[in-house]
Amino acid sequence: MPSPTIVWLRDDLRIADNPALLAASRRGEPTIALYLLDEESPGVRALGGAARWWLHHSLSSLAERLGEKGVPLVLRRGPASRVVEDVVRESSAGAVYWNRRYGAAEREIDAALKSSLREAGLLVESFSASLLHEPWMVRTGGGTHFSVFTPFWRACQALPAPRRPLPEPDDFVGIPPALESDDIAGWALRPSSPDWAGGLRETWTPGEPAAIDRLAQFLTEDVDDYERTRDEPAAGMTSLLSPRLRWGELSPFTVWHSAAGAPGTGKFLAELGWREFAWHTLFHFPDLATRNLRPSFDAFPWPPVDVEQLTAWQQGRTGVPLVDAGMRELWSTGFMHNRVRMVAASFLVKNLLIDWRLGEEWFWDTLVDADEASNPFNWQWVAGSGADAAPYFRVFNPELQAKKFDPQSRYVERWAGDSLLTAPIVDLSTTRKAALAAYERMKRTSADLP
Fold first, then answer.
1. Is the pTM of this model over 0.85?
2. What is the DSSP string of 35-56?
3. Span 297-318, pLDDT tens digits
4. Cα–Cα distance between 137 and 155 in angstroms, integer?
């Protein structure tokens, strides 16, 4: 009697270089792919609106590709601890495979399921698929985790090279049992009232085939100019691979081995390393989205939130052209150029004196590439409270940044030309001084700050 293999998919929505899926094909039993939308398990962060839109389309693409191989994609909704065991029981599965997750709540869920399923006699295996190096493998000479990027990345590069991408499974044997599956439309992942996703549809084609095409296009057409022009938002030289990596439509191993050794890819690969650094930090500090990584910043004297200023920032109506352009690009496309992300974040935290956590929540809801590591990690970097953070007194002056990286205002005119004629909601010089004064007050209570 067949004992199907369940492949529990999470942020690995691909067929190529998918260790769990490949292992299932080699087990020699019918394969069932399962994706469950877990918005109920304690500690699991609910997806933002833009991420939900991407998930809908990526799952639709994956279901079509898996169907061509005779593998059904079963969609279920609910707490993982219950739903996975339900599908095991309904399918009489003999094995469950998945690729690892690194958030604390997710690891607890996976560990408990692995234990209970093994006790029930199932074969349960997890695989490395979303990071080049496991977080417990990169350690300082003293055996601790790294808190500074440069030595972290140097240590990663001293390790054996990341494994080669695994082949796409050729054949899946047998016919899996027919299981009930949710209709993805019933999940209401796409906005409808109102439908604000027009810009997302115009900008992106989610799914593994489009991800593979974008990687090839970037390495063929853009990478030569990446290091020289990557900070210029109008140049269009960003890789646009971050949502592909976030959803696992591409593996970091595929990106690494496609780019490694090619001229001019060193800086690009270091950005892949920065992503690793964020995930390794989350592994060791699971409250990254809600707690200052540096406890001294708990004493920062945030004033009461000015709701009008926060709303103006969210809507790109600050009168600061580069900030407004970035925030409008974000709302329209679910994406923002990385240099502009830093400028917009710095303006919120250090000119409006609004807690970085409110900015992180907004980006979480509006970015298609927001993940639970990189999003809070980068916000804490700008705020000065995180790992290897920019010093708090480093304020990204948006006017100087615009003169340096958008000197002809091409980016600003595309997204927020009217902002060039609008008075800023705050004085940049005055608010910078207020931010530094607040930092000095915090320093008086914190001995570990410069």
1. yes
2. EEE---STTPPPPPHHHHHHHH
3. 999 999 999 999 999 999 999 9
4. 10
